[in-house]
Amino acid sequence: xxxxxxxxxxxxxxxxxxMTLFVCALLVAPMVASQLGGNxxxxxxxxxxxxxxxxxxxxxxxxxxxLLDMGFIAFYAVGAxxxxxxxxxxxxxxxxILNSWFPDGLHTSWxxxxxxxxxxxxxxxxxxxAPTLKLRGDxxxxxxxxxxxxxxxxxxxxxxxxxxxxxxxxxxxxxxxNLFGLKFSGVYHWFGFKVPALWxxxxxxxxxxxxxIFVCLQHSRIGRAWHAIREDEDVARAxxxxxxxxxxxxxxxxxxxxxxxxxxxGAFQGFVSPESFTLQESIAVLAMVVLGGMGHIPGVILGAVxxxxxxxxxxxxxxxxQQALFGEVLIDPEGLRWCWSCCCxxxxxxxxxxxESKHEPVKRTPHVKALWRPDGGR
Length: 378
Fold this sequence. Notes:
By secondary structure, the protein is mostly helical. The protein has helices spanning 3-37, 39-64, 73-86, 90-94, 110-129, 137-157, 197-215, 221-231, 233-238, 243-269, 279-292, 297-326, 333-347, and strands spanning 171-172, 178-179, 182-183, 187-190, 193-196, 271-272. A two-stranded antiparallel sheet has the order 1-6. It is globular.
């Protein structure tokens, strides 16, 4: 028996031990964050998980297939607005005729909204991908960037002549998430423990991310085809890979992840507005993918966590750290100027006395008598 065969069980045991500790750390993360920084940090972690979902979806398009998509945030907006329209009273206010059909209000089940958001976003991904199949590199980036801005501007201006998106004011009053009778709002008391809804959001988003990782198809036949397209499209075409179908599939699957993330974002915030889907958000998600390593799932997750949580950490620690490093302002500069004026006046050094002009007398300060005057002391 070789040394490698003897070391294999040891390596496997260490791997699974490390994975067990990692899973346990993930399970207790919201509890630890709540104890250290309150629900604020739990909310930051929840937002980091939402961005992980977005980064994993964009990773399919950019990382696996090599298509530079700068408008991925548009699919996020599509899912969020779809959820807001189907789970808020906005449509009933715009179209009163719907009140007869929905007397109890338009409260669509989230088990319908989330899959519908994935399907609609996937359809938008196909609509974006179909005209851009022949584009590569910077040209594709410019087109997708324009698509993202078109969606944002459309959501901002679709309040006239019929108020569908409520314009820049956004849509408020979105129903909280409700799955199988479990509402993701308020505080629950289970087995003597107080469980805030933010903890439930954490575990739900974690499950969705795990499901997305299993669907990412990295080592499947589709994943290998995407890798071939990324390396060289001409060689992939020569090997019999249908570039059109696989590119459209990448756009559709990536967009569906963005749509699901958008629907969950709408339920999490309870409010949706165009300012949440700007170009800066697209660039941020792309930076998460590039920072962690395109096509590398653990790296993408790490990049999303860093670029989401690190700014909040710096924002909360920058002021105390600045005071610790540089101290506080103990003396006002105006006070120093007043002291210098007093010293010059007491010394009688006329030319060094601070004055506004040579024809104006020295400005007297409290408890200090000027010893020199322009009139020669008369």
